[in-house]
Write a structure and sequence with these properties.
zinc; oxidoreductase; NAD(P)-bd_dom_sf; Zinc-dependent alcohol dehydrogenase family protein; Rossmann fold; oxidoreductase activity; 13 helices
Length: 346
């Protein structure tokens, strides 16, 4: 088969690799039908995730058809269409028993495209298949489902729920890439009074407005003045960091009100300064997190019922064989206007 292989920082190739095989009794093998590229994949290629070794197949977001299962798999069988979650769960360790699957200590967590081969390939092995795949409801399209593999539950759990968004809140989302836009989409479920989107790119700000932000601000303007103007000088109730840079994190801590909440979603590859000299007296709560995907069944029900339109986030479509071109388009959003790209089996 062919797969997208990481060759070290800045190096990737679409090349021939051995077909995956069942290794553990709880494994499943899927034919990959639709896959996408994540900003985390770009962080890997940028050298920000050193645990990823050269030779690793990238990718952790896919929809596929089961072609084989190990003898320990009981909930899916060959022929089933499934969502492959970005998080694998052993189901037995302390963290899995608490629903914190992202912190699994039994061989799971975020392993696909990280510590084991991922899903940007024609076929993929999925460990712990019973707990790490979700059969798709009849009528749910691959494109609608694939965004539930990572960015929707990530933004919802790590941004909206960790940030405790409430009706009437002023919510600021710093970064209007796919993660930030998914945060806007899911924050709307809680009826905030205002959603403020901040980004450098006009195209992404317009996408944020389309998805529900009622205030958009260029990062080079004065976001603090805008936020204070709509909050009687207090600042935002919730600020989500969806970029992953020191500057964006520090901006978030200036925009939050006393007693407010900063929810960090972005993947950080460099140290960020925590200005405790300013924050210690302001009762600010800062949360970080890796997605646990406990919300995936709920989000899947909403998508199936037509209550959550994830397809708006897909701007470009490619055959899987054109994944090198798709990476080029996805990595230059300011030039291409790309949000999420979908790659499908021909």
């Amino acid at each position: 088969m062919r797969a997208l292989v990481f060759g070290g920082p800045g190096q990737r190739s679409w090349t021939d690799v051995p077909d995956p095989r069942i290794i553990d009794p709880t494994d499943a093998i899927i034919r990959v039908d639709t896959v996408t590229i994540c900003g985390t994949d770009l962080h890997i290629l940028g050298g920000d995730v050193p645990a990823v070794q050269p030779g690793r197949i990238l990718g952790h977001e896919a929809v596929g058809t089961v072609v084989d299962v190990g003898p320990g798999v009981t909930t899916v069988r060959p022929g089933d269409r499934v969502l492959a979650s970005c998080i694998s769960a052993c189901g037995r360790c302390r963290y899995c028993r608490e629903g914190s699957y992202g912190q699994c200590r039994g061989g799971g967590g975020w392993i696909l495209g990280h510590l084991v081969d991922g899903v940007q390939a024609q076929y993929a092995r999925l460990p712990f298949a019973d707990l790490s795949t979700y059969p798709l409801p009849e009528g749910t399209t691959d494109e609608a489902a694939v965004l539930l593999a990572d960015i929707l539950p990530t933004s919802y759990e790590v941004g909206v729920l960790n940030g405790q968004v409430r009706p009437g809140d002023t919510v600021v989302v710093v970064g209007s890439g796919p993660i930030g836009l998914a945060g806007i989409l899911t924050a709307r479920l809680f009826s905030p009074a205002h959603i403020v989107a901040i980004d450098k790119a006009d195209s992404r700000l317009q996408a944020a407005k389309h998805l529900g932000a009622d205030v958009i601000v260029k990062a080079d303007d004065d976001p603090l003045e805008v936020v204070r103007a709509i909050t009687d000088g207090l600042g935002a109730d919730v600020v989500m960091e969806a970029v992953g840079t020191p500057a964006s994190f520090e901006l978030c801590t200036t925009l939050v009100r006393p007693g407010g909440r900063v929810a960090n979603i972005g993947v950080h590859g460099k140290p960020a300064t925590l200005h405790l000299e300013d924050l210690w007296i302001r009762n600010v709560t800062i949360t970080t997190g890796l997605v646990d995907t406990y919300s995936t069944p709920t989000l899947l029900k909403m998508v199936s019922a037509g209550q959550l339109d994830t397809g708006q986030l897909i701007t470009h479509r490619f055959p899987l064989e054109d994944i090198m071109q798709a990476y080029d388009v996805f990595s230059r959003p300011a030039d291409t206007g790309a949000l999420k790209v979908a790659l499908s089996r021909e």
